[in-house]
Each structure stands twice: as structure tokens, then as C-alpha cells.
Amino acid sequence: MTLAHGRHFQAIPGPSAMPEEVLAAMHRDAPNIYEGSLIDVTLRVEERLKAVARAPKAEVIIYITNGHGAWEGALINLFSPGDKVLALYTGRFARGWADMAKALRVGIEEIDFGARSPVDPQRVEDALRRDKSIKAVLMVQTDTASSVRNDVLGVRRAIDAAGSDALFLVDCIASLGCEPYEMDAWGVDVTVAASQKGLMTPPGIGLNYVGEKARAARKSAALVTPYWDWEPRINPSVFHARFCGTPPTHHLYGLDAALGMIEREGLENVWERHRRLSGAVHAAVEAWGGGGSWELNIPDPAHRSWAVSAIRTGIDANGLRSYCDAELDLTLGVGISLSSGAVGVRETGMFRIGHMGHLNPPAILGTLATIETAMEALRLERGAGAVEAAAKSLARA
Ligand SMILES: *Cc1c(COP(=O)(O)O)cnc(C)c1O
User: Fold this and answer.
1) Digit-coded pLDDT (tens) for 119-149
2) What is the distance between the alpha carbons of residues 181 and 386, in angstroms, rounded to a whole number?
3) Statement: the pTM of the whole predicted model exceeds 0.85
4) CA 23 to chain centre
5) Who's near 380: CB < 8 A, 6+ residues apart?
6) Which ligand 1 atom lies nearest to the CA of residue 203?
7) Nearby residues of 62 by Cβ (< 8 Å), 6 or more positions away
8) At CA 318, angle to CA 333 and CA 372, rounded to 5?
9) Which of 38, 185, 329, 348 would you label with 63, given CA atoms 20 to 30 Å apart?
10) Ligand 1 atom with the shortest distance to the CA of 140
11) Distance (Å, rounded) from C-alpha 196 to C-alpha 152?
């Protein structure tokens, strides 16, 4: 018999858990889209979005789309066919973004840092010194497949050290609202994000944060299309021109509630909570690894994401995941292939724990203890004391 009952628990890296407060804010009839509260909420959401990315000077573009749409929005506003972009691969997601650029006939120079290590800024500097025609550098802060966190400021410094005036584009879809990020202070020209991860809102909103230099580059981009065009959204003739049509009404109310929660908790406290909760996951996996083949995909603790952990199992992890799902009411994230093949291929020797957004110690300890229960039921070899290690890690202030 299954022990599943009540609210099914998800520990996947997006869509993440949705707070009651967000759901309640969305539970309403269609609002007036010409005047009234929706306009006030939208203006507040824009200000709160700037705060969460530490981007007071940027323009925020709110698209009705997912992360992939936000990727395309950024690309078509900046480039023309034949432009050259340097893409930095540390798993899966920068590759997916660069593949989209290739399909738009943008030239991609790639550096692959492998599946288990971060971007090395020195290699970025060297590549930019060698090739002065590179128009932009594209990277992800947190790669959700490998669970590496890259050094965004380090890459900014590499661009400067090379004397390059390349635009700097960063995908923060998995990391915004989870890991420290400072768009303006770190000199990022375009930040891409989405609603359904650290921002705790259903999928459906994709974001482009546009700095001054990126906005200027938009003027000469030949790829611009009407729907994705930043300019009419930055200077809307009427309210709904910000959205090139009907606004994402309910998502705006939900996102406003989520951003209000982040504001109340304090952004730095939100980051610190993610750091500590992820530390519990890392401690547990290290304990499992003491007596079995389990290990974190990212060996260097300084580059482990605070939002998601990819775990190498050494065995086929599908049995573990399905046992957790069917018997114990816990959905774990699938492993995503980290080799250079097609996007979306599953890696059976891995699984992922999402620890982003609306999360507290019972959620994390419950997830880890539930995995431990499944391992015990399936007689999987592992080191002892993982849940205790997680508890100790949380208890250390
Ligand atoms: C989830 C994710 C994406 C893709 O977002 P979708 O909403 O699924 O299109 C892109 N980049 C990163 C880093 C992600 O975590």
C-alpha cells in the first residue's frame, strides 16, 4: 500500500512550490485591463522586480511566455544575422540558449567548461583578447542541469580586462530570488528570468531586464520582431502596449504577492535561507556518499547552487524516483543529460532536488528523510547519518 495522502510534495527545480498567498492573490475574476488596480499592481511589480535583481537602472520587460521565450526576446532585440556571440557552457542551459541564437543565424563561439565545473573567467578573457569582433557574452548564473553557480562578477571583470565592449547577457531563470545577484553593480547588460522558480509564481511570465547599453544596441538589431520588441513596451502608448496586448492579469497579481513576500522577508535573508537550506542537502548527500556511490555533481562547495542540487547516483535513479513518487508522495527532479547531445535527454544516473523559492526546514528535512526512506526500502547502499548531518548543518547558525 502507498503512504501517499494529502498534499503531494514536489522537490523539482521549477515550477517550484506556490505560496498560499500567491494562489489567493490569483483567485479572482477578470480585472479591468484599462484602469484601476491592475495598473497600480503592474507598476509596483516593475519596481519590485528591479529590487529583486538589484537593477534600479534597468527597464523591465514582462512577457507572457516562459524562460525560452525570454531567451528569444533578448536575442532578437540585440543581434543581426552574422553577429558573433561567445557562449559559456557549464551543463545544459547556456547551450540551449546558444542553439536558439544559432537558429536565428547568430554566430556562436563556444567555450565548454564541462559538466562539473564553473566558468573560468580567465579563459573568457583570453577568448575576448583573441577575437575583438565578439559582440556579446552569454552565460547562465545557475545551470539547473549541472547545478553549478557561475561567477557573474568574475566574467564581468574578464570582459573589462580584455578591453572588450561586448554586451553581457546572463540567464538568472533558476537563480533570481535564490542566489545573490546584482545586475547593476556587476555590469550586466541583459538579465533573463522567469516567474516559476525563485519567484514562486506559475510559469507564464518571462522577463528581460534591459540596461542602457543593451537598449542602445537594440537600435541596430536586424532581428527585432513586433511582439518581442522592447521599445514599445518601454514607451507604451497605452497601458496594454507594455504587453503587446492583453496583460497577464492573474500572473501579475500572483507575482506581486510573491515579490511582496520577498520584500517582507528581506532579499538578503531570502538568499541566506537558500544558502542554509542548500547546505543541509549538500551535507546529506556527502553522508550518503560515505558508503555508496552517491555524490554531488559539483565537487567545489563554492560553486554549488543554492537553488538546485544535481546528484550522481552511480546506479539507475529511476527506481528511486518512482518509489518516492508513487509510495511516498514526493516528486524528485529527473537528471538532465550533461553531454553535448540533444536538449532534454534524461540522464538515468542522476536526479535533482529543487530547493528554490517557498521552502523551509520541514520541507528540506522531509525531502531528505523521504529519500532516505526510499533508499532503505529499496536496499540501496549508502553512508549512514544523512538526515542527522542535514539537521546538524541547519542547526549550525
Ligand atoms: C528553467 C530554466 C530555463 C527554461 O525555462 P522555461 O520556462 O522552461 O522555458 C532556462 N534557463 C534556466 C537556467 C532554467 O533553470
Assistant:
1) 999 999 999 999 999 999 999 999 999 999 9
2) 30
3) yes
4) 21
5) 292, 315, 320
6) 7
7) 42, 45, 46, 49, 205, 207, 233, 242, 243, 248, 252
8) 75
9) 185
10) 13
11) 22
